[in-house]
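User: Working on a comparison across species. This one is Ornithine aminotransferase from Sphingomonas sanxanigenens DSM 19645 = NX02. Can you predict its structure so I can line it up against the others?
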Amino acid sequence: MVSLFRTDATIKKDVESEIQYDPSIQHEETIAVAVKDGIVTLSGVTKSYMDSYYAEKAAKRVSGVKAVANDIQVKLSTERLDPEIAEEAVKSLKRELPSSADKIKIVVKSGWLTLEGHVEWNFQKEWAERAVRSIAGVKGVTNTITVQPRVNPGDVKKKIEDALVRSAQVDAQRVQVEVDGSKITLKGTVRTWAERQEAERSAWSAPGVSSVDNQIRILP
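Assistant: Here's the predicted structure for Ornithine aminotransferase from Sphingomonas sanxanigenens DSM 19645 = NX02:
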């Protein structure tokens, strides 16, 4: 029988390999990886925010990773003025989210972009961040957009549980769903970070959900 326990050294090697072979990441600069008790810390310097973003995503895909601390610094080869970044971000939001862009406010300071405001669905919050994070000159994105749904369906718990059962990536029997109004709490255990994220995605996909507290633990 093969042990499911993964050492920090093994996780570190796999994270480095995952980052190295991700075609979305430019490898002109070195990204350092440290692991302690399954918690991964990424450090180093990249020339774009997208490299930092994709490195973090790559680390989260690796089995045995419990959490990721992204300490990568973004140092652009060419700086852009904050008003230029803000103007392009506004245009991108209007293009990608024409029905809700007017509910979102953009703040840019020293290349760091913050999204504020409210939307009705979580996918709109995620799409807003997706629309701006690849803009040239952006060093980071903080998404503080809140979800304020119009409806609060009484069967939201069943909808989430049904979604978990349908998902091939989640063992639904190991996940518990608690509902308090439009706020969802997920508990239980899963085998991987990816499975934990998929369970959270399923919860956010239900209509009427305004927040998800993911307390699921990773037990490989």
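For your comparison, note: The mean pLDDT is 89.

User: Helpful, thanks.
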